[in-house]
Structures are given as structure tokens and as C-alpha cells.
Amino acid sequence: MSIQSIEVAKKELLSKAKKSEKAGWSKFKQYYVGPIVAFLVFITLWQTIPLVLGLKHYILPKPTDVVEAAIKDWNLLWPAIQITMLESVIGFLFSAVIGILVSILLASSKILERSIYPYAIILQTIPVVAVAPIIVIWFGAGYNSIVVISFLVGFFPVISNTLMGLNSVDKNMDELFTLYNASNWQKMWKLRLPAAMPFIMAGLKVSCTLTIVGAIVGEYVAGIGGGKGGLGYSITVAAIQVKTAYLFACGIAAAILGVSFYLLVSFISNLILKSWHESAMKVEK
């Protein structure tokens, strides 16, 4: 290879590296600069306002107070996060599995759908705080009741979205399967379920955050102490003891837990859908 061709190759590599760097910086500015700036402004205002107005730490703690409280009581906060996480994951798994199975059953028969689906809607409209005491009476205080409450809160988005997806199959594809004498179950497994997958994933994304809310609400009613209570129980205790900074720390921990859970489900959704569905495919511009 001549010296001239080597120089040309080097220039091409440098050009590609610069283009890649420029594209990366452009993407960073487009997606991340705005949220970072907004976060910094929010934290600055939050830190400044209590100082300017002279608010006591138990009225509105500063971010530094919240961080200090989280570090000081980390031996209480971390176990509470783990307990709520476990309850939420179990509730979410029940919501996902039972919700999808019930949706398949309802979608396979219009009579069943018209008979049972309205009751699922009614169940969703009943406030959780009204149902929670009954669940505690039936299942006892502690994990069982909390998981059931978490499941009930996360169940409806799964069944609603899955059923919508199963009933939104392309008419031409359905007629093609009918033309080839496919049975109803063959249509379900080979046509309707794959077509409903984006709807199912959308329902799971909603459900995963709601199950955390359900677990925390359940802990208000059925939570247990002695180091075995989750974030809901910790929030209750912190409110009674007027530990406002720790109360904020628990709330922020719950929010971070919810965002993390959502991002995990979104990542799994993208892995499943990215090779064939437009909602997850990356379009090069």
C-alpha cells in the first residue's frame, strides 16, 4: 500500500470520527441538555427558597437536608426500598400473567368479553383505599395483602391494553387466516397475540408504575413494622414523627424506584419490538 493511500485512509477515518462525535453531541443536546438544565434550575430554586423565606426544615427541607436524612437513616431507607420493590415486582408479575391470560380468554369469546369485562372496569373504578381494609381482613396484615393490592392496581391497564390489541387485528390478515382454514386458537397464537404485542407492552409500562403505587398504598393500610415495613410504612412513621426531610427522601426513593422499573420494562419492550415494529425501530434521519 502506498503512502498516499495510507494518508487518504487516515483522513477518511478522522472524518468519520468527527462526524460520529458531532452526531453524538447533537443527540446529547437534543435529548439530555434540556432535562439536565431543568433539574439544576429546580434544585437551585428548592435550595434557595427555604433560605430566602426562612422556612424551618420541618416545613420545607432543603435538598441538602434530604440527602443528609437519607444518608443518616440509610439503614432504615434501604430495607424499606427493597421490601417495596419485592412487593411491587410480585404484584406486577401477577398483573401481567393473569391480565394477559384473562384477556386471551375474553378475546376468544364475545359472550365472555361482554359478560366479564364490565366487572373489570367496575373493579378499577373502586378506590383502592376503600378496598384495602377488606383485603386486609381477608388476607391478613403484611405481604399478602400488600401484594394483592399492588396486583389489583396494576391489573386493569394490562387487561385493557391487551384486549384492545387482540381486537385490533388487521381485517385482511384475519381473512387470510380464515382462507387457509386456521382455527380460532391458531389465529390467536399466530396472528392476534403477535399483533397485540405493542399494546401489551404499553399496558405493562403503565402497570409497572401503578404496582409501586399500589404497594405503597397497601403499606399504609397493611404495612408492618419491626424493620419489615416498606416505603409506605416508612412514610407513615416519618409523618407521625415530623421527620420531613426523611419523608421527602422516602418519596424521592419511591419516584426513583418507579422510573427505574419503567425503564427496565421499556428496555425489555424495545428488545422484543425493535426488529419489527415501528414504535421501537430506530429511524435514521
Strand content: under 5%
Proportion of residues in helical segments: over 70%
User: What structural category characterises the helix and strand content?
Assistant: mainly alpha
Q: In this structure, how is the largest beta sheet organized?
A: none
How would the global form be characterised?
A: flat
Characterise the protein shown here.
The structure is a single chain. Helices cover 82% and strands 0% of the residues. The chain is built from ten helices and no strands. The radius of gyration is 25 Å and the shape is flat. The protein starts with a helix and ends in a 12-residue tail after the last helix. The relative contact order is 0.11.
